[in-house]
Amino acid sequence: MRAFVVLTVLAAAAANAQTTVVSGTRPARLIIRNATIVDGNGTPARGPFDIVVEGNTIAQIVALDPVAMRSGVGRRPAADARTAEIDATGKYVLPGLIDAHAHLQDERAGVAQPIDYELKIWLACGITTVRDVGSDTKKALAWRQASANGTLAAPRILVYPQFGRPTNADSARARVRALKAMGADGIKLLGIDRDIMQVMEEEAHKEGLRVAHHVGVEETNAWDDIHFGTTSIEHWYGIPDAAIVDGVQNFPSYYNYNNETDRFRWAGHLWREADPARLQMVLDSMVAHHVAWVPTFDIYEASRDLQRARTQPWFADYLHPTLEDYFRPDPANHGSYFLGWTSTDETFWKENYRIWMNAVRDFERKGGLVGAGDDAGFIYQMYGFGLIRELELHQEAGFNPIKVIQHATYNNARILGKENELGRVRQGYQADLIVVNGNPLENLKVLYPTGVDEIKDGKPVHTGGVEWTIKDGIPYNGPALMRDVKQMVAKARAERANHADRQR
Ligand SMILES: [Zn+2]
Fold first, then answer.
1. Alpha carbon of 194 to ligand 1 centroid (Å)
2. Cβ-contact 407, 371 below 8 angstroms
3. CA of 236 to the centre of ligand 1 (A)
4. Per-residue buried b or exposed e for 87-112, using 16+ beta carbons within 10 Å of the residue's own CB
5. For residue 188, how far is its CA from the centre of ligand 1 (angstroms)?
6. Which of 115, 243, 256, 454 has the most CB atoms around its CB within 10 Å?
7. CA atoms within 13 A of residue 71's CA, in its CB half-sphere
8. Cα 457 to ligand 1 centroid, rounded to whole Å
9. pLDDT band per the 50, 70, 90 thresholds, residue 330
10. Residue 399's beta-bridge partner residues?
């Protein structure tokens, strides 16, 4: 009976709507009706609610549950001539996902790839913000601006340029100031000497720039991140290294770091060499010094299961030929290390993952801040799809899906320093929201734009997917974006086939 009342009111409210939702155009006012909300703050699903977006802000969230309706607080906001509506009955609304480890790529190995390809897949996967941790900085800043202006269909972009390798303290400080002047949001470290790291972090703190560190097999490890105040450790290297009692992994004599097969093979032995008691000390210190962790489990998955990585179902329609070429094993492409990859390598890597996943769990239990990013564009991970796979791997690590969603929303917003505006479904926050066909707390796979197959009333149905990605108040239709992507890929493949014919 109560459900009937709600539906009648919905019909009455909808009758006044004058505007239809147009993908890519921000309506003056948008109401998402009857939504079940999973907020980004680690609380369970609740609903239904009407969510009112005015411009690019979440203006109002109105509870419509029977208690709220009977008590009179559940007064449905009316639609007027400038209001567009999305019916979210039976759907889940989440904060837009944030990819904390992304790369803006309009080429692979020097071959052009349309930037829209990556941007549209990101949006279709529900990603409304990316932290770009290394790309062509000038282009990235221009795309950041175009996205902010609403002239480019893209997530919000935060630019963390690669720091490079200054050779002395003065040039390190100058580099930090130059990046600040350029408009960078933060800095990405990859391979750095300890003395340079110390001064660059001092300067970055002065300039208010956050630091993301991809620790290589190098002089520094997590202890340096703890002492110098790194914002987030990317991937995982540097953490087990800091827990190796003898200070160096037991590498074979022939090991050469610049040989990627050596690098990835022996990385698979790294976690087992970490002393468990010392590892707990490292994690405790990271927590105490507020060093966050963005593990990017997905980007190493080929190491533990190469066949799975190479045969992902979305490759059929959505893998751009430029990216496909780049993924082919070639020692000159970063991450193409798996020529000669063995069952023995995979077995070591499976153990490596078990210890690593437990460490990430321990870290959060101690109070550590875990984020989520995918590092896609390398090692068989496609943009967007990689982040959703990452969420599945967080679930595999033992996190409740409520926490998994939190990693990719509010936790990432905290890592970015945007926790007062992003990562929550909360009044006054930026209108970055996704409308999902299905319950991601039951099955994270419903977030894949290719959807899922389910049995409903005894019949197989294809469902799932992010139906609407609302970024900055602009709704984008997920299936429409993926149709564009599919066409882009088909066109690029046809051009290649023509080219090959002409050469014959
Ligand atoms: Zn990366």
1. 21
2. yes
3. 12
4. ebeebbbbbbbbbbbbbbbbebeeee
5. 9
6. 243
7. 9
8. 44
9. confident
10. none
The backbone torsions φ and ψ at residue 90, rounded to the nearest 5 degrees and listed phi first, read: 80, 5
Quick count: other Cβ atoms within 10 Å of Cβ 480? 13
Span of 117-126, 161-170, 255-264, 281-290 with lowest mean pLDDT: 255-264
In the reported structure, the alpha carbon of residue 294 is separated from the centroid of ligand 1 by a whole-number distance in angstroms of: 11
In the reported structure, the alpha carbon of residue 221 is separated from the centroid of ligand 1 by a whole-number distance in angstroms of: 17
- 27 C-alpha vs ligand 1 centroid, how far in Å? 35
Distance 83 CA to ligand 1 centre (A): 41
Q: Integer distance in angstroms from the first to the last C-alpha of the chain?
A: 71
Burial class (CB in 10 A: 0-12, 13-18, 19+), 341: middle
The rounded Å distance from CA 135 to ligand 1 centre is: 9
| Cβ atoms of 265 and 300 closer than 8 Å | no
Query: Residue 10 above 90 pLDDT?
Result: no
pLDDT above 50 for 303: yes
Looking at residues 444-454, what average pLDDT do you find?
Answer: 97
Rounded distance between C-alpha atoms, residue 103 and residue 192, angstroms: 20
Q: Any idea which residue has 């692979």 for tokens?
A: 108
Q: How far is the CA of 327 from the centre of ligand 1 (A)?
A: 15
Q: Is 364's pLDDT higher than 90?
A: yes
- Give distance in angstroms: CA of 440 to centre of ligand 1: 26
* Ligand 1 centroid to residue 360 C-alpha, Å: 19
Q: Which residue has the higher pLDDT, 3 or 226?
A: 226
Helix (H) or strand (E) holding 15: helix 2-15
Residue matched to tokens 């795309």: 143
Cα of 191 from ligand 1 centre, angstroms = 13
Taking phi first (over 0 means left), then psi (-120 to 50 degrees means alpha), and beta for anything else, what does residue 357 get? alpha
Which helix (H) or strand (E) element contains residue 99? strand 97-102
Residue 40 in this model has a pLDDT that exceeds 90: yes
pTM over 0.85: yes
The pLDDT > 70 percentage for the chain reads 95
For 79, residues 6+ apart whose C-beta sits below 8 A from its C-beta are 13, 14, 16, 17, 18, 31, 85
- Find the 115 Cα to ligand 1 centroid distance in Å: 17
Distance of CA 453 from the midpoint of ligand 1 (Å)? 32
Angle 47-370-58 from CA coordinates, rounded to 5°: 35
Q: What is the CA(301)–ligand 1 centre distance, in A? A: 15
DSSP state of 427: T
